[in-house]
């Protein structure tokens, strides 16, 4: 699998060594034009919630550590989107189909990660297509960009893009995307980076299919942001605000007060959290929400309630390690 990820990384991303050719300048292939079209004509429903589906036997088998869902969590937090669910499923058609259908029906913004490479176990595109009764079709703009931007493998010196071969068949697997004839093509695949041939495929209006290679996943997601911001409840992108208060009290001592506080502010969109810090003398209480002014107004009350003080990072008031004694 690691060799497959390396192969996918090599094929998907390649810096442009020269000015864009006429192919990259054409409207159908220009990533900025494509993204703008999607932004201006995409569905207008607001994005409040998100879900992430990590696909891959290697994650469930402990061979690969998932870093994409934590990245997506921070990405959503910064935009004020509530990430409601993260799941990991194997490279199994039925599992992928069931999970993606369920997530698409329940959440506004669904992101999948993994399973879109050139080998037999990369079945994400075909499984998601089947989940929504769609067919796979060769995405010609992606294929043209692949030919333009892919580096030839040193062990395939005679590879020819125009001659049928097992190698070409494997590459084509990565640009055969789910296609819905009832939806404009520009809403179903969007190029967001001019040095990457892989598009973000969009299925059923809210399922966004991304590669599992972390640096590709992160770059595509960050560059997708302009298409998402207009659909946020806060289009200015202020995101979610988190405030931390450090307390010397054990969780059992602050629990009654925090329970009362949570009941009081839940209807106002503020979540109260309590986090023990094992081996440390101080624990952390958090206030999280999109209304920064409201959260700021609660600081003094909470500081008194938990006998604590506001901090910018959890370990700000920690004593030297030798003096730390934790009590819950």
Characterization of the model:
Helix 3 (31-41) packs across helix 10 (214-228). The radius of gyration is 23 Å and the shape is elongated. A six-stranded mixed sheet has the order 2-1-3-8-7-6, with helices on both faces. The protein has a four-stranded antiparallel sheet with strand order 10-11-9-12, covered by helices on one side. Strands 4-5 form a two-stranded antiparallel sheet. The longest helix is centred in the last third of the chain and has 15 residues, at 214-228. The model is unreliable at 1-33 (pLDDT under 50). The chain contains twelve helices and twelve strands. By secondary structure, the protein is an alpha/beta fold. A hairpin with a 3-residue loop joins strand 7 and strand 8. It has helices spanning 2-12, 22-25, 31-41, 57-60, 68-79, 93-106, 124-131, 140-149, 166-172, 214-228, 251-265, 292-305, and strands at residues 49-55, 82-89, 109-113, 135-138, 176-179, 189-190, 200-203, 207-210, 241-247, 271-275, 283-289, 309-311. It has two domains: 2-231, 3-Layer(aba) Sandwich (Molybdenum Cofactor Biosythetic Enzyme, Chain A), CATH 3.40.980; 241-323, Alpha-Beta Plaits, CATH 3.30.70.2860. 38% of the residues lie in helices and 18% in strands.
Compute the average pLDDT.
85
- Judging from the principal axes of the Cα atoms, what is the shape? elongated
CATH architecture of the largest domain: 3-Layer(aba) Sandwich
Full CATH superfamily name of the largest domain:
MoaB/Mog-like domain
Q: Give, in spatial order, the strands making up the sheet with the most strands.
A: 2-1-3-8-7-6
Reading off the top of the CATH hierarchy, the class of the largest domain is best stated as Alpha Beta
Predict the CATH topology of the largest domain.
Answer: Molybdenum Cofactor Biosythetic Enzyme, Chain A
Radius of gyration: 23 Å
Q: Tally the helices.
A: 12
What is the β-strand count? 12
Whole-number count of domains: 2
Please give the share of residues in helix. 25-40%
Largest sheet: 6 strands, mixed
N- to C-terminal separation? 43 Å
InterPro entries: FLAD1_M, MoaB/Mog-like_dom_sf, MoaB/Mog_dom
GO molecular function: FAD diphosphatase activity
Domain MoaB/Mog: 51-231
Organism: Penicillium angulare
